[in-house]
Amino acid sequence: MLRRRGLASLLLAFAMLPPPRAADAATTATLTAEGRGARLTVALAAGERWRIRALVRPNRLLIDFPGSRWRGPARTAGAGPVSVMRNSRGQLVLDLTGPVQVTRATGQPGQLVVEIAPGPAAAFNRAAAAKTVLAQGGGTAGLPLVVLDPGHGGRDPGAIGVKGTREKTIVLAAAQELRRQLEATGRCRVAMTRTGDRFIPLNDRVTFARRREAALFVSLHADSAPGARGASVYTLGDSTDAFSTALARRENDSDRAGGLRLPSVSPEVQAILLSLMRAETRAGSARMAEMVVQELGGQVPLLPNTHRQAGFVVLKAPEIPSVLVELGFLSHAQDEAALRRPDHRAKLARALSRAIGGWLARARTAEVLATG
Ligand code: ZN
């Protein structure tokens, strides 16, 4: 979401990160001396919780990972005020040469950074005696948000299959299954533009994602198109074929597109910000589309030229990479029969969950200051 900070405007950029380790718990830590203190960096799984406490006789810091275990080496050499770093029954223990204070402890998805410096003995002893948690974090709060957008709803049934299957029902069931699977990975938070049979205007779906500062927007559909079969994925762009144009027009006709919410800066600054953001967002959307095609391929039938571009209104958030997945076509008897089956929807959800997980692992939201 765009904000103004005085003259500085923020825009979102997506920076590449190395893929995370497969392990679901902390496994590596590095300790370096920093002046008279030390800095500890611990690799964390997304959403992993951590706590730091003080222990005395002898002086130690204990870092534990509720619900998980430290899997690092039994003993590692210390640095600064840390004599040894140990793995004690799944907890990370720093043996200290004297009392310390924690001067910084910041956890972000993927990494915990703790800085310590020599500190007063009285405060250290008090914290140990009271079992005070010196710092803690993690959990789902810092995780990126994925917005799932089941198409249609309420008075708008979407496509109606040859057997009378309604698109709005199928895509809601698919989104609920995908949400369940995504939440189980612990890699992201999930919000849905609708969780029931409710009509939501297209722009409200976009606004929903923007208000929540979503990292990714995934719209789910199962439309109707004569003769078409198989899954496909759309990103925003000029339609390159009449088929995609017609599909986008039908979707967009389900209500009228309004203007985007733009920051209150001068038109020139707005234009520059938007074009920068759109370029980043377009790259992120394309990367997501490629991952969806890769994961769905071999699992379910695909529409030829699986990644297509069209002017869908729900894909128009300038700062949120967005894709629209056509799970199949209800106008095709075999697609309709498959989409009615929970096991087929679960298979689609598994592929999409893998694509989203892979995308999140590579994309990191970074704030770039554009000073005014
Ligand atoms: Zn649709």
Description:
The protein has two domains: 29-137, Sandwich (Immunoglobulin-like), CATH 2.60.40; 145-370, Aminopeptidase, CATH 3.40.630. It is elongated and about 75 Å long. The protein is 29% helix and 32% strand. The strands form four sheets. Strands 7-8-9-6-5-12 form a six-stranded antiparallel β-sheet. A six-stranded mixed β-sheet has the order 14-13-15-18-16-17, sandwiched between helices. The chain has a four-stranded antiparallel β-sheet with strand order 3-4-11-10. The protein has helices spanning 121-129, 167-185, 202-211, 242-252, 267-296, 333-339, 342-362; strands spanning 4-5, 8-16, 29-34, 37-43, 50-55, 60-64, 75-79, 82-88, 91-96, 100-108, 111-118, 133-137, 145-150, 189-192, 216-221, 231-236, 302-310, 322-326, 363-370. The protein has 372 residues and is an alpha+beta fold. Zinc ion binds next to loops.
Question: Which helices and strands occur, and which strands form pairs?
Answer:
Layout: E1 4-5, E2 8-16, E3 29-34, E4 37-43, E5 50-55, E6 60-64, E7 75-79, E8 82-88, E9 91-96, E10 100-108, E11 111-118, H1 121-129, E12 133-137, E13 145-150, H2 167-185, E14 189-192, H3 202-211, E15 216-221, E16 231-236, H4 242-252, H5 267-296, E17 302-310, E18 322-326, H6 333-339, H7 342-362, E19 363-370
Parallel strand pairs: 13-14, 13-15, 15-18, 16-17
Antiparallel strand pairs: 1-2, 2-19, 3-4, 4-11, 5-6, 5-12, 6-9, 7-8, 8-9, 10-11, 16-18
Zinc ion (ZN) binds at residues 151-152, 158, 167, 221, 223, 251.
